[in-house]
Design brief:
The protein has 307 residues and is an alpha/beta fold. It has two domains: 10-102 and 212-306, Rossmann fold; 129-209, DNA polymerase, domain 1 (Orthogonal Bundle), CATH 1.10.150. The chain is 42% helix and 14% strand. The chain is built from twelve helices and seven strands. Strands 3-2-1-4-5-7-6 form a seven-stranded mixed sheet, with helices on both faces. β2 (48-53), α3 and β3 form a beta-alpha-beta unit.
Length: 307
């Protein structure tokens, strides 16, 4: 069985979501199937869970893990297309476990790693339009700089984009080493700072290749439609850019009034609110869980309920 990370806040997610064991649930990011399994353990024979993943390897893993259990329905799909599998008001709960899996990071051929000489790919699934290398070659300096700034809050994004473009013109077969040289040339990092900077550069590129912020907004919006009244959506995010996209999307569904700010009084009816907070503040992993699973260190769990 392929190695995947241990699911973060596994039992907490199941506690918040699975309140009716005979209802239908959704895991939009199957990965190794840990969260799906935790929810499945709480379902009655007439309950069900639909699990999506854009990575064919994750779907193959899930088919092997859940073979013979008719309650599980697996689909190769980005979560922005969840409406294809979940009709309106059909779900009691939905889970979004964002970011890249440990399996994807560890598989050198997938191109997520900044290990020396690794390919620049970073596609989570076949729906991605281009590899990381193709994106770097085809995007403009201005657009690349925007991605470095907005996806990772990097300093000097224009200088970094210019340096990347310069190095691309000098190398016939670029690998992860190109980005390492670009980072060294712009930031002059100490040895203990280089990995963190590279991680942020790779994050910025990966999010563009996989349209991650659009996926978050479109997926969460579709989940709100698919939830029945009283149904819950839980989101695990792992860095500030993901979490910001989640908060901004949820905030739109918490508004009663959709009138333009310039109007002196509400004329829309003021009854548009669709979500309320279950957790006032995001829940984080305990010290014990972080010790067992370092990936949990940066995790934030947000839970909302449909009203």
């Amino acid at each position: 069985m392929t190695d995947y990370h241990h699911p973060v806040l596994e039992q907490e997610v199941a506690d918040f979501l699975v309140r009716n064991p005979s209802a239908a649930y959704l895991d939009v990011t199957l990965g190794g199937g840990g969260h799906t399994a935790a929810m499945l353990a709480r379902l009655a024979p007439d309950g069900s869970i639909t699990s999506l993943d854009r990575d064919p390897e994750a779907i193959a893993q899930g088919q092997a893990r859940f073979a013979g259990d008719a309650r599980v329905h697996l689909h190769l799909s980005p979560f922005s297309r969840l409406a294809d599998f979940c009709p309106p008001e059909s779900l009691a709960g939905a889970l979004f476990d964002l970011g890249v899996s440990s399996h994807q990071l560890d598989e050198r051929s997938r191109g997520f790693s900044f290990e020396s000489g690794a390919p620049l790919d970073m596609r989570m699934g076949p729906d991605a339009e281009s590899s990381a290398l193709e994106w770097l070659k085809n995007t403009s300096e201005e657009e690349m700089a925007r991605a470095f700034g907005s996806n990772s809050d990097l300093d000097r994004p224009f200088a970094l984009a210019k340096r990347v473009k310069l190095l691309l013109g000098e190398e016939s077969q670029p690998t992860s080493d190109l980005l390492r040289r670009a980072v060294d040339g712009i930031y002059r990092p100490r040895d203990n700072e280089r990995a963190s900077l590279l991680a942020r550069v790779f994050q910025a590129i990966r999010m563009e290749v996989n349209r991650e912020k659009d996926e978050i907004r479109q997926g969460l919006s579709a989940a709100v439609v698919a939830l029945a009244k009283g149904g819950r959506v839980a989101v695990l995010s792992y860095h500030s850019v993901e979490d910001r996209a989640v908060k901004e999307t949820f905030a739109e569904f918490e508004k009663d009034c959709h009138c333009p700010p310039r109007l002196p009084v509400c004329v829309c009816g003021g009854n548009h609110r669709r979500l309320r907070k279950v957790l006032r503040k995001p829940q984080e992993a305990s010290a014990d869980e972080v010790a067992r699973n370092p990936r949990a260190r940066s995790a934030k769990l947000r839970v909302m309920e449909k009203v």
